[in-house]
Amino acid sequence: GSYSKLGSFNSKWESGWKINFSWPILGKGSSIGSAGGEGSSGINIGSYEDQIRQAEAGVESAEFELDKAISKARANLETVYYGVIKDIERIKIAQLNFDRIADHLEMVKSKYNQGNASGLDLIDAEHGVKSAEISINTVKHALILSKMAFNRAIGQNLNNPVTLDPIRDYVKTPLLPLD
Question: Whole-model pTM?
Fold first, then answer.
């Protein structure tokens, strides 16, 4: 808190004073009012009800900030959780794409050996396979980063393994058929 002389800058504190209180619960640099009085006989901080209202306002403000921080952390955790799931699915898709392109390369090689495809077709198909391999590695790298972000969000070592169960495993089958 701070205090100062009211009315004049006389170093003798005889006629008036002012006291500002700062409550840590409201956050950095928050001030919730002042108290003052005349003379040096005592401090008049305000009524008991005013003090209670000020304290309640401080508690409500702190609770609001806490709820906001919890909501932000929850949203961040959901984002990184679904990021991991998305990257797992992207690896599956990249692998399927690689398999399709590898099959295409085998077909082009067969046609090339028969004389029905040019050398350019063969080079293009080989390039497609290399690009698909790069795509798989890129997605695997993204998955590693997603898992690290998930571990950071839950406060774990960044290199801890992350194993997520598919969401559909948590859905219970209905007791009665819905048909």
Answer: 0.57
